[in-house]
Amino acid sequence: MWAASWCVVLAAAAVPQASAGRVNSVDRWTVDQWEQLEDAGAAVEKTISQVFSRNGTTRLEVITEPIHLEDVYFHDLDHNYSVWLRESLVRPSAPMEVSRARSHLAEGRVDLQTTVPRLEATGLYSVQDMAATAGPVLPTTGRYRLLMYNVSGEGVVVLSARPAENRTMHLATVEMQFDTKAWFMRVTEHGVNRDISDFIHNEEFGDAVRRKLWPELTRHLSDGLAREANHLLGRRPLQQLVRDGRTVQRIEDRAAASARNVDGIVDSIISSARSVIVQRLDNKIRLPDILETFSALLFRGTFKAKDGHASNLATLYRSGETSLTSDDKLLHLYGNLGFQNLQVFYKYYDVSVLGLGPSGSLEASVSPVTVYLHLHTDNEGLSKLSLDEFRIRELGPLDLKMTGLGPFNPILSRVATWIGGLYHETIAVRVEKLVRDYVAGLFDKYTLDDIANGRAFNLTGSGVTGDDRGASSARLSRSRG
After folding, report:
1. Counting CB atoms within 10 angstroms of each CB, which of 86, 106, 435, 439 has the fewest?
2. CB-based contacts of 278: which residues, under 8 Å, 6+ apart?
3. Is the separation of the CB atoms in 180 and 149 below 8 Å?
4. How are the residues of the chain apportioned to helix, strand and coil, as percentages rounded to the nearest 5?
5. Cis peptide before 368, with omega less than 30 degrees from 0?
6. How far apart are CA 120 and CA 291, in angstroms?
7. What digits encode the pLDDT tens for the residues 127-146?
8. Residue 1 carries which DSSP code?
9. Residues 357, 408: contact at Cβ < 8 Å?
10. Over the stretch 16-58, which tens digit does the pLDDT of each residue have?
11. What is the C-alpha to C-alpha distance for residues 186 and 49, in angstroms, rounded to an integer?
12. CB 125 within 8 A of CB 112
């Protein structure tokens, strides 16, 4: 039975810590091989912790040049202000310091603790009162400088063996949670609105800027950490870390077999989620109407859009291999997913300046859209999966098309800013919640065996194409081998 064989592979992939006279019966490791594995773990830990050592301090150059962050547009609903952050740059004051790097090679993970002494973010801001009903819209503009101190990170990176021809270890997944102990922001100001002036000099504005920049900033920190650590591990062949050639081969074979089978499980989950989305939502979700104001010379303009929806939610797919690790009680699965193309369509928009302006429809798309997935299951029973995280990690470039603009074509860039904010602030949040709820519902109702064997959802009549069902079946059949 395929599900049983998958459990065997998982048990082999998550071997418990060995003690004298304790040898895992499933994987048939000898005591000598356990010692080899423990020695290799110590070597990996030493390699990660010491190769960047300077004067006794472990440092990783995760940010070597200023990071250019994407523009951020959002509404502060408490004050009815719109905020636009652009041309944002992040600079580190010093390299990332690794205060702890504890490897668990048998469990396929490294526990990390890091600190960046200081990060500096600078850029331009624009704050506008959306409630103004008369006269021109006069935004308050200026520069901001945000200093973040003692940016600490803690989390798990997943170790995996590269293909046999490379014969090295690498970090397949880096999942760090970052926090800052203190921050301080200063702004310059050009504007006449006293209420906005009070707002931008208040702590809540600085906190809003930090929170909006934080997801992309910390993604760059995690990516830089993975890049530097993998550069390090790529210089140390697995044979140098594990002296016995047979143990090296077992590590590589186990990693490959686990990846194949766990990938099949994730593919089954995705197929079930896609089917639910197509059948229950018709592959789309409704979006709120848009109302924005802008300045056109000395006049106030408005942009309205209504009857909108986001579609192509069922284009969810697995974009890479799934990583597997364990702790004392749980098996953890980490994966990278994506949406092929998240589209937005508004049936009607209207631009008005002094009662004049174009109208039509608008369509926007973002691709690629990357998603981080974290699941876990009990190390003993292996009967139920639980969803820990489904998070949209990165949105690709925005492609916007509008009908009927005519001489108002210059407003296209402003609309792109507004729609980009809609993706980040509304669409991503709703899609995340939708998929989380549906996948969690599947896990509550069905066992791991049901999901692995396609019984978690009846694909017949769900709207999933025959090609989709065939591709999923082919992947799972390969995993059965």
Report:
1. 86
2. 314, 462, 463, 464
3. yes
4. 35, 40, 25
5. yes
6. 33
7. 998 876 666 678 899 999 99
8. -
9. yes
10. 333 333 333 334 444 455 455 555 556 655 655 554 444 344 6
11. 36
12. no
Pairing mode of beta strands 299-311, 284-287: antiparallel
For residues 122 and 145, the answer to whether their CB atoms sit within 8 Å is yes
pLDDT of 12 higher than 60 = no
The identity of residue 274, as a single letter, is: R
All structural domains of the chain, each given as residue ranges with its CATH number in brackets, are 51-243 (3.15.10.30), 280-453 (3.15.10.50)
Computed over its alpha carbons, how large is the radius of gyration of the chain? Answer: 26
pLDDT digits (tens, 9 = 90+) for 83-103: 999 999 998 877 888 777 776
DSSP state of 424: I
Q: Are 310 and 427 in contact (CB under 8 A)?
A: yes
Q: Is 238 exposed, middle or buried (0-12, 13-18, 19+ CB in 10 A)?
A: buried
What residue has token string 């608008």?
A: 362
Record the tokens describing residue 329, joined without a space: 């009680």
At residue 355, what is the residue type?
G
Reading the block at residue 465, the tokens are 């194409």
How far, in Å, CA of 169 to CA of 163, rounded? 9
Q: Please tell me the distance from the alpha carbon of residue 370 to that of residue 391, in angstroms, as a whole number.
A: 9
Q: How far apart are CA 154 and CA 111, in angstroms?
A: 8
